[in-house]
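User: quick one, sequence for these tokens?
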């Protein structure tokens, strides 16, 4: 199988390339080497340093390609209004340009890196009234330490439930909006061009090679950085917010399985990529601390960011049933090992 991988020098893209090449597949590597992710370093050997927004100028690289694995994206929280043009340019325009170039080159199969952020809030269930769609959390209540959503019918606290791929999509940031736009462009291309798309909605990815102290870092990397400075990891809210943390090796393996499945598929299909083992942010901090050289008790601060999601936990069923993907690295093992795993050097800030 010949695969073109965009974002091939990135945290996830590099591991996808490694697993493909270890399996004997031919890989065409493309990465623009964004300073936000890579600093001023040069592109790795064998990488075409090109911008997906200019994909129509390098369609020759698509010759003979069986499937494209599109990992390239500007990531991060996307909370500043000033970030909107960058996300739209790199993620939305970049994806649209790539899809157009693929069509011109006769390449009709795509695996797209999407994200759990397309869901916005997770799923909430009232014991008496079933599934509910609570509105944004009130800052006044957050100030008093009341972090959980309540049922809009009876006012009682709700519990979280698993989010499946048919859940309502409600992006809450410019980054999230751009990831959903990528899915929409890919789905439209699939209908118009007869292409096949598998969109992989990554949950909280971590592992060796993760960038250090950049917009591309996740909360586990931030906890680790605090510990390396001799400080306790700072946990917002009450630490009981629930997520799913999935190891980068598992995420890459999900990509490989998806790449091998597209020949037998039609249309657009989305999949959660997760460990299937929910964990609180407080537990994440404790596991990273336990594996560190200088363990420290996590500090639960009660601080909050109004736009943060309280709980979002994925259902792994569709990926298991249709892709054969089941995560191999449990969070208690992977997060502890992550505390001393090699990371990428911090990139120089560009904005």
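Assistant:
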């Amino acid at each position: 199988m010949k695969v073109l991988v965009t974002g091939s020098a990135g945290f996830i893209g590099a591991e996808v390339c490694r697993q493909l090449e270890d399996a004997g597949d031919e890989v065409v590597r493309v990465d623009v080497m964004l300073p936000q992710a890579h600093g001023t370093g040069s592109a790795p050997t064998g990488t075409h340093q090109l911008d997906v927004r200019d994909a129509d100028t390098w369609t020759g690289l698509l010759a003979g390609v069986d499937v494209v694995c599109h990992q390239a994206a500007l990531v991060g929280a996307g909370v500043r209004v000033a970030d909107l043009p960058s996300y739209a340019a790199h993620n939305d325009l970049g994806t649209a340009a790539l899809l157009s170039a693929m069509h011109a080159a006769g390449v009709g199969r795509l695996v797209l890196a999407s994200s759990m952020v397309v869901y916005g809030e997770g799923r909430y269930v009232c014991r008496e009234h079933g599934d509910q769609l609570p509105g944004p959390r009130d800052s006044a209540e957050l100030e008093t330490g009341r972090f959980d959503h309540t049922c809009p019918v009876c006012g009682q606290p709700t519990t979280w439930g698993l989010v499946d791929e048919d859940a309502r999509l409600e992006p809450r940031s410019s980054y999230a909006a751009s990831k959903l736009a990528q899915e929409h462009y890919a789905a439209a291309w699939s209908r118009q061009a007869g292409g096949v798309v598998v969109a992989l909605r990554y949950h909280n990815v971590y592992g060796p090679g993760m960038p250090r102290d950049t917009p591309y870092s996740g909360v586990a990397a931030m906890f680790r950085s605090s510990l390396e400075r001799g400080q306790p990891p700072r946990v917002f809210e009450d630490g009981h917010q629930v997520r799913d943390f999935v190891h980068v090796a598992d995420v890459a393996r999900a990509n490989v399985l998806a790449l091998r499945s597209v020949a037998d598929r039609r249309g657009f299909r989305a999949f959660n990529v997760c460990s299937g083992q929910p964990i609180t942010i407080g537990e994440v901090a404790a596991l990273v601390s336990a594996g560190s050289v200088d363990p420290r008790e996590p500090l639960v601060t009660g601080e909050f960011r109004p736009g943060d999601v309280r709980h979002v936990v994925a259902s792994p069923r569709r990926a298991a049933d249709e892709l054969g993907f089941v995560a191999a690295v449990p969070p208690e093992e992977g997060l502890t090992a992550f505390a001393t795993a090699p990371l990428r050097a911090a990139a120089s800030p560009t904005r």
